[in-house]
């Protein structure tokens, strides 16, 4: 057993994961990879956004295949344990497991970084294969070739976070090429490689512009269906976790399935299946609280990093996405490797790769509330976003005016929006209407669950604002009409019985005791003029 060679660390980490209350068994990945290891000289790279379970799967593979620890009892209790023929292979391989996200104590250069990896691996090989008389000055691939020649030994390589080093400030363009060459020399056309399993965020194609790493088959969430089931949580898996949460959590239960879906769902595999962010789901159930568990160095700086070079081109699409719309984009995953994103498609491609946007059928969107909150932080604070930032700042005043029935202030804010640079107020489509309403009521999301096109009565309401925490707070039903009066919008609310959403009938939303406000907003395209009307549809009940 060594630091990298047949290390006990993957077993220790995976065993700990299996003992957690919200563990999801994805051990059948082993069944798909075993034939590749048996064939020999296979290379796969699986890329996913952060927090999608890549390291958990890497630890699982190291624990199952490696000789460092008897893991048979652990896997016998998992799904793969039912596969008798597969279980014959447990702990039968030499595994070299390297997590590339570890740095030396002092690391100011690529040379210091890679020297640590080479030194550790050579030490492991010298100790395990002392008869080979390996030298500490050998290249690691020469040492491995000598081990193969002397013992006939082959290895499974499990390489986690292969792209970590590209995010370090001290790495130069030349360093990146040296690193690619290191991986190529280590893995390409080597008789000692049974399987190279590599994970990361960034695709390797862009960095390997020549033939250095062309032996890898890449599997991403956007373009490849293979292995999709093993990264992220499916609807069925989250439902099972939620049942466990209901059984083990003492009242009050602060989380619903609808809440989990709203906060953490919204990603898509290449096959079209929706998946949840696994880390956030587990954290929410464990803490009994829906919250933003996407940690970062700041509330919005990561998102702004991608758009800062071309705000003008992406601003309108950002407004539409914040409104809940999906916008067209040509996603090219390799664009994420660029340090100088310029075009809109490059920017959105990078944001998809890093998990800030979801991609499906040629369109990108903000996947869920967890990410929507971060986008909201950004547009509230970043003045360079122009009208989007201005309307976000006005949104607190818009909500207060609505609750107070101050229709003049409401109209003034909409007029202000129209008289700025806001092209969305051309009102050429339903999406543009939605974008405007979402922007001017952006702050309402702090207090309300805002639903668009929600079923109510005998039709679909443009917007319903459900109070989040205070059931005694005012609720809002909003209709926006172009070419019609606000009175006509209110009539539609009444005629189509949208109020049934708050009447506690079978299948409707019960328990709200505050007022229900009907809000009608009319826009005259000829006069370019807004009118608003607020009416109390139901008084507060005790």
Structure described in brief:
The protein is an alpha/beta fold and 542 residues long. 39% of the residues lie in helices and 17% in strands.
List the helices and strands and how they pair.
Layout: H1 9-18, H2 29-39, E1 42-47, H3 54-65, H4 72-76, H5 84-87, E2 94-99, H6 110-128, H7 140-151, E3 155-160, H8 173-187, E4 193-200, E5 217-220, E6 233-234, H9 235-248, H10 257-264, E7 267-268, E8 274-276, H11 278-287, H12 301-307, H13 311-322, E9 327-328, H14 344-353, E10 358-360, E11 363-365, H15 369-381, H16 387-404, H17 407-419, H18 430-440, E12 448-456, E13 459-467, E14 475-482, H19 486-495, E15 516-524, E16 529-538
Parallel strand pairs: 1-4, 1-5, 2-3, 3-4, 14-15
Antiparallel strand pairs: 6-8, 7-8, 9-11, 10-11, 12-13, 13-14, 15-16
Helix pairs in contact: 1-3, 6-7, 9-11, 13-18, 15-16, 16-17
Mean pLDDT: 89
Low-confidence stretches: 505-509
Output the CATH topology of the largest domain: Rossmann fold
Shape: elongated
Architecture per CATH nomenclature, i.e. the level-2 architecture of the largest domain: 3-Layer(aba) Sandwich
Written overview of the protein:
- It is a single chain.
- This protein is an alpha/beta fold and 542 residues long.
- It has 4 domains: 9-227, Rossmann fold (3-Layer(aba) Sandwich), CATH 3.40.50; 233-287, no CATH class; 301-385, no CATH class; 387-538, Trna Endonuclease, Chain: A, domain 1 (3-Layer(aba) Sandwich), CATH 3.40.1350.
- It has 19 helices and 16 strands.
- It has helices spanning 9-18, 29-39, 54-65, 72-76, 84-87, 110-128, 140-151, 173-187, 235-248, 257-264, 278-287, 301-307, 311-322, 344-353, 369-381, 387-404, 407-419, 430-440, 486-495, and strands at residues 42-47, 94-99, 155-160, 193-200, 217-220, 233-234, 267-268, 274-276, 327-328, 358-360, 363-365, 448-456, 459-467, 475-482, 516-524, 529-538.
- β3 (155-160), α8 (173-187) and β4 (193-200) form a beta-alpha-beta unit.
- It starts with 8 loop residues before the first helix and ends with a strand.
- The relative contact order is 0.08.
């Amino acid at each position: 057993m060594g630091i990298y060679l047949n290390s006990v660390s993957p077993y220790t980490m995976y065993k700990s994961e299996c003992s957690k209350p919200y563990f999801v068994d994805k051990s059948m990945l082993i069944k798909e990879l075993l034939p590749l290891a048996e064939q020999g000289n296979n290379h796969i790279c699986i890329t996913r956004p952060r927090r999608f379970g890549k390291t958990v799967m890497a630890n699982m593979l190291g624990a199952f295949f490696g000789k460092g620890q008897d893991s048979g009892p652990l896997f016998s209790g998992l799904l793969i344990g039912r596969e008798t023929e597969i279980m014959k292979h447990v702990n039968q391989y030499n595994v070299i497991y390297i997590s590339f996200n570890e740095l030396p104590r002092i690391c100011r250069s690529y040379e210091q970084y890679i020297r640590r990896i080479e030194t550790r691996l050579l030490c492991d090989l010298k100790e395990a294969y002392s008869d080979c008389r390996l030298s500490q000055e050998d290249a690691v691939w020469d040492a491995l070739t000598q081990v193969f020649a002397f013992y006939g030994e082959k290895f499974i390589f499990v390489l986690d976070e292969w792209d970590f080093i590209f995010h370090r400030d001290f790495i130069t363009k030349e360093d990146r090429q040296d690193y690619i060459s290191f991986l190529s020399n280590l893995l390409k056309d080597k008789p000692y490689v049974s399987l190279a399993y590599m994970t990361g965020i960034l695709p390797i194609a862009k960095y390997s512009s020549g033939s250095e790493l062309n032996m890898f088959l890449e599997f991403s969430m956007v373009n490849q269906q293979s292995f999709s089931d093993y990264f992220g949580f499916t609807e069925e898996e989250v439902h099972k976790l939620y049942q466990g949460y209901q059984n083990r959590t003492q009242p009050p239960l602060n989380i619903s399935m609808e809440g989990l879906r709203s906060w953490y769902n919204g990603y898509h595999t290449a096959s079209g299946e929706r998946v949840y962010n696994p880390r956030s789901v587990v954290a929410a159930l464990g803490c009994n609280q829906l919250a933003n568990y996407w940690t970062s160095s700041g509330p919005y700086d990561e998102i702004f990093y991608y758009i800062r070079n071309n705000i003008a081109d992406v601003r309108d699409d950002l407004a539409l996405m914040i409104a809940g719309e999906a916008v067209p984009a040509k996603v090219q995953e390799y664009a994420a490797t660029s340090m100088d994103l310029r075009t809109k498609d490059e920017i959105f491609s990078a944001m998809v790769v890093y998990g800030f946007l979801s991609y499906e059928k040629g369109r990108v969107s903000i996947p869920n509330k967890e990410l929507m909150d971060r986008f909201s932080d950004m547009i509230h604070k970043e003045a360079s976003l122009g009208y989007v930032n201005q309307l976000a700042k006005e949104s607190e005043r818009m909500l207060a005016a609505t609750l107070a029935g101050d229709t003049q202030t409401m109209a003034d804010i909409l007029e202000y929006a129209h008289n700025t640079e806001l092209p969305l107020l051309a009102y050429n489509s339903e999406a543009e209407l939605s974008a405007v309403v979402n922007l001017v009521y952006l702050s309402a999301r702090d207090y309300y669950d805002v639903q668009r096109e929600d079923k109510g009565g005998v039709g679909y309401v443009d917007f319903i604002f459900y109070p989040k925490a205070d059931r005694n707070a005012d609720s809002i039903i909003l209709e926006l009409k172009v070419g019609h009066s606000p009175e006509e919008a209110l009539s539609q609310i009444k005629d189509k019985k949208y109020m049934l959403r708050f009447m506690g009938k079978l299948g409707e939303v019960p328990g709200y005791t505050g007022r229900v406000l009907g809000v009608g907003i009319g826009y005259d395209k000829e006069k370019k003029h807004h009118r608003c009307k607020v009416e109390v549809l139901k008084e507060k009940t005790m």
